[in-house]
């Protein structure tokens, strides 16, 4: 009888861990779906406020899961999107906050959420102003984007953002294979709006790159 009593709490704990992980994954997916609707379906003038609301919800999720990288990553992604939607001096503050969140997440689990840490850091370093105003750095951007590609060479986001980086460097011919790979990427479960929106961006970038090398 004593042996059964001793083993019961452990059995309950083991059963609870996958359930907690599943709950977190579900909450992250819900936030990702909200983000996609704002990013790809909302009019531009309302996006900054909507991203701010999603970031606040994501921050509360991170507080409930201080040992997990996923909420920190997604808060960083949303803050980066908010920066892009807001523009101006406030955007740089948000971009720096996004970078801090992503670097904190990297210390916990650098491969969480399919390498979104490195994709988003690469995008931030690509688009932020350089020194002395901001932290933008094309070499750091390339380093992070190549890390994302090394982790997930066939995913849509690493290929799109590296292709975009190459276009910004006027290396149009080199960009084309990455953008073509982005279009061929498999769909992400539960994220049809994000996939459709990103594919539209890929197609536009690919059209531009091909036009430049004709």
Could you give the topology of this structure?
Layout: H1 2-41, H2 47-64, H3 70-86, H4 88-108, H5 116-127, H6 138-151, H7 156-168, H8 172-183, H9 192-213
**Radius of gyration in whole Å, from Cα?**
19 Å
Note poorly predicted spans. 1-19
Biggest β-sheet: count, sense, barrel?
Answer: none
Q: What's the number of helices?
A: 9
Amino- and carboxy-terminal Cα gap: 80 Å
How would you describe the shape? globular
> How would you state the average pLDDT, rounded?
91
Taken as a percent bin, the fraction of beta residues is under 5%
Number of strands: 0
Structural class: mainly alpha
Strand-and-helix sequence, N→C? HHHHHHHHH
Number of domains: 2
What is the helical fraction, as a range of percent?
Answer: over 70%
Word description of this protein:
With 214 residues, this protein is mainly alpha-helical. The chain has two domains: 14-136; 153-214. The chain is 79% helix and 0% strand. The chain is globular and about 50 Å long.
Which key phrases capture this entry?
214 residues; mainly alpha; 2 domains; disordered N terminus
Short description:
By secondary structure, the chain is mainly α. Helix content is 79%, strand content 0%.
